[in-house]
């Protein structure tokens, strides 16, 4: 991922079941010690409990002071819906044989350029 002087540009999408609108997406680069709230790009007029669509988000997340070009960084995101349901941190707490409801925090590792 290419860095800019203000951090890493990130974009993504979030969805909540049962028609609940996504009201916030948080992103961390340090394992949850510091969270940054993304900007949601969605229809504002959509009702809170009748929204069956993806919510697009974007964020220019600042890099921690100790991170340098060439380092690998773990990017984790977590969504919250209009019913204040938050994604669970780990899949092990919700794991089941069929794989249903596997909706834990999403984490990727990126190398900084």
Note down, in words, how this protein is organized:
With 113 residues, the protein is mainly β. The chain is 0% helix and 37% strand. It is built from no helices and seven strands. The strands form two sheets. Strands 3-2-6-7 form a four-stranded antiparallel sheet, with no helix packed on it. It has a three-stranded antiparallel sheet with strand order 1-5-4, with no helix packed on it. The radius of gyration is 15 Å and the shape is globular. The model has no long low-confidence stretch (mean pLDDT 86).
Number of strands: 7
Rg over alpha carbons: 15 Å
Percent of residues in beta strands? 35-45%
Largest sheet, order of strands side by side? Answer: 3-2-6-7
Q: Report the order of strands and helices.
A: EEEEEEE
Helix content: under 10%
Please tally the helical runs, counting DSSP H or I stretches of 4 or more residues.
0
Kindly report how far apart the N and C termini lie: 6 Å
Contiguous low-pLDDT stretches (5 residues minimum) are none
Largest sheet: 4 strands, antiparallel
Coarse shape: globular
């Amino acid at each position: 991922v290419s860095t800019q002087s203000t951090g890493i540009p990130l974009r993504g999408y979030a969805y909540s079941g049962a028609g609940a609108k996504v009201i916030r997406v948080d992103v961390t680069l340090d394992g949850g010690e510091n969270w940054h709230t993304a900007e949601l790009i969605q229809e504002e007029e959509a009702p809170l409990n009748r929204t069956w669509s993806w919510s697009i988000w974007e964020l220019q997340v600042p890099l921690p002071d100790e991170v340098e070009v060439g380092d690998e960084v773990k990017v984790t995101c977590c969504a919250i819906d209009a019913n204040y349901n938050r994604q669970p941190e780990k899949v092990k707490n919700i794991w089941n044989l069929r794989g249903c409801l596997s909706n834990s925090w999403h984490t990727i590792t990126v190398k900084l350029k």
